[in-house]
Design brief:
4 helices; 5-stranded antiparallel β-sheet; globular; 251 residues; alpha+beta; 17 strands; single chain; 4-stranded antiparallel β-sheet
């Protein structure tokens, strides 16, 4: 199903909101260190959102998540509620944030290693997952099928011999956080929904060093790898243009 058309003003608001989100992430990457707790990181993010005149979408009735940002550590993939857990050197941590600005949503995620330069298997996981996101974006050459995006992501993750999380997908975004169409991280070229110029989507590959099976934890939110393997998550909100894609959630 296609998205409702956006006005020039709505797209401009998403550009502004995406820059705010990217600015917050730029600061967060510099602030996260061993000894910091998830709740401290969450509080810092919420303060920054308010400072920039935006709203933490997760805390609105639309989502009803208890915190401003999802913080997922090691085998946790996504949707994890911040706790009193204190980051340790070497932890793989994924941050996933949606903000609302002038009535429009933008969504982005990144994964980092706390307190050290990624190396070995961790570096491999992060590099290939982020590379798959960029490949999905590069597959957009103006109007494009969601299957073209998924196929590009899948190829990179398969090349990296990573587990592809197939039960969790990207999505349309704009007036609401989750809109049509779904954007899977796998697929066949020429299949799926045809995206039009002016559509905005969140592309978000998630991958593991192990298998692709997932479990939902007892809090009802946190989704983790079933085999306990490390996971990574990268995401951008992008605008489909006449001849490609504009990444909205970068500086």
């Amino acid at each position: 199903m296609s998205q409702p058309r956006k006005t020039t003003e709505q797209i401009a608001a998403m550009r502004e909101g995406g820059k705010i989100l990217a600015t917050i992430y730029d600061g967060l990457k510099k602030n996260v260190v061993p000894g910091m707790s998830e709740l401290e990181a969450d509080a810092w993010v919420e303060k920054e959102i308010i400072k920039h005149g935006a709203t933490a979408t997760y805390k609105t009735p639309e989502v009803n998540f208890p915190n401003a940002i999802c913080i997922s550590v090691n085998e946790q993939i996504v949707h994890s509620i911040p706790t009193e857990y204190v980051f340790e050197k070497g932890d793989i941590v994924s941050f996933d944030l949606v903000i609302t600005y002038k009535g429009m949503k933008t969504d982005s995620a990144f994964t980092m290693v706390v307190g050290e330069t990624p190396s070995g298997a961790k570096k491999h996981l992060l590099q290939y997952t982020e590379r798959s996101l960029l490949a999905g974006i590069e597959a957009i050459k103006g109007p494009v099928y969601t299957g073209d995006i998924g196929a590009a992501i899948e190829k990179v993750l398969n090349d990296g011999k990573l587990g592809i999380i197939r039960q969790l997908v990207g999505h349309g975004i704009g007036q609401e956080m989750h809109m049509d169409p779904e954007v899977p991280n796998y697929g066949l070229k020429g299949s799926g929904v045809l995206l039009r110029v002016g559509d905005t989507i969140a592309i978000e590959p998630m991958a593991t060093l192990g298998k692709e099976k997932i479990v939902t934890e007892s809090d009802g939110w946190t989704i983790s790898t079933k085999d306990g393997s490390l996971a990574a998550h990268f995401e951008h909100t992008v605008l489909v243009t006449e001849d490609g894609a504009e990444i909205l959630t970068i500086l």
